[in-house]
Amino acid sequence: FFSDLSKDYTARPNNNALFFSIFLPQSTSQTMSILYEDEFVRLGQFTLFVKNYHFPTKKTKSISLEAITTLWFEEQETCKSSTTKIWGKASSASIYWALDVKRSLGSLSPRPPAKSNVVVEVGAKLRVGFSVENIDEFMDAIRTLLDYHVIIVNYINLP
């Protein structure tokens, strides 16, 4: 009946997700539960997608929301440049940044609406950093999805 019964569907939190993953194309099931999206990030019901993450392919990094233990955020204009980088690993912090060519410009260049930097800890050696265009909308959406144990800090001051 089904061509691939070997998939493990037990990790899905409800039967509706199972139905959608079996009977609907992957792109349809993912777009149905997008709570926030901009040019840097897409937030789904169970997954955070960081766009333009991997160097040099610019592929998207998928992060399970259950894996996030700590989240830091700060406006780019007030964020210390020593903890940020346009793309790749920041030298002074254990953060790997997704691509944003204007992240480290600070007040040197006029920018459209203020963006923010976000860093998430997922239990790996490197934290994941990315930009967000509308931090209020992003934080409102992600707060409803994260476990109550997740620590949220409104500044990025990492060693």
TrEMBL record:
Protein's name according to its UniProt entry: Uncharacterized protein
